[in-house]
Amino acid sequence: MDNFTEETVMSNLFTFEKLVEFPLTSIIESSANGNNTTLNFLNEYCFTNTNGKREAVKFVFYYDYVKGGAAQTMRVEIPIISLITIPYYTINSAQFEMGINILSWVDVSTKTWEQADESKNDKKLIAMLGPYESSSSKGDAQSAESTQYSKVNTNMKVKMDVVSSDLPSGILQLLNVSSQGVEGHIAYDLKIKSNTSRLLMDQEEVPLTLTLVKNNDEFNDSLAESDDMDLVPLTVTLIPNEKVELEKTFGKKITVDSGDIVGSSSIEKVQVLTNTNGEIKVTFHPTLKEVTNGFINVSSPLTSNIKIYFRILKS
User: Fold this and answer.
1) Contact 125/188 with Cβ under 8 angstroms?
2) Gap between the Cα atoms of 89 and 222, Å rounded
3) What is the pLDDT of residues 167-193, one digit of tens each?
4) Strands 198-201 and 303-312, how do they pair?
């Protein structure tokens, strides 16, 4: 047997258990590699590390709308993981068909793997992948030999059924959390600030300062930092805890010291315009003849309301 023939034959020799183990190992490794591919996909497209924190990558967009007669911009955040299909496939079934030629018992305790009989303790079966029968028995010796070695290199039939599998429970929980993480925020995040949370009215003129400010701690993009925004109306309303005649409790309409009045002021209510970082000052005029308490409600179409406690002290 020439060198080529000998090398070809020796390269196809295995212990019998290894020969049977190869297909099973391949399936396990394929499944593990598939799981790694899914994890790498999530790491690359769905998550990022920001300042040592692992955060979900989000798809962000804006849209404009009008609320209470004032223009506003809404910022919407949707986690990327809830928008894309996660690749997750498993091997549903696998069939391996191969020809195995069992050659002999060998003693594996020696480096040369010498032939041994069945009485040896440290012995293993040596086998090789056998060629399938040729579809044609005709042809010269050279073509027969080349056909035989061709089939030695391709003598295993493999049939696999790969399917899109149900996602693991952990990924399903991740998707559930991500779907709940779809959020819309007012892009400018306006807030009303007051110079006090309790207003004691013991004088005939009691001032109140209100400031409308932008809080951009959460939104650092250029759109949120823009000052291109219309004026915002703030409405100040007196709401006593008990039913009292406000005309007896307050002698004058609410006056405005800073800001532009919208419409007409009254004892009960006034509406004032300011910009996104503006300040308004209003003054109340209690008569100091009636003792009462309640809340001053400050509202805006672009912010949540705030309430300021007030109490009139009788002179």
Assistant:
1) no
2) 42
3) 777 777 777 777 766 666 665 567 788
4) parallel
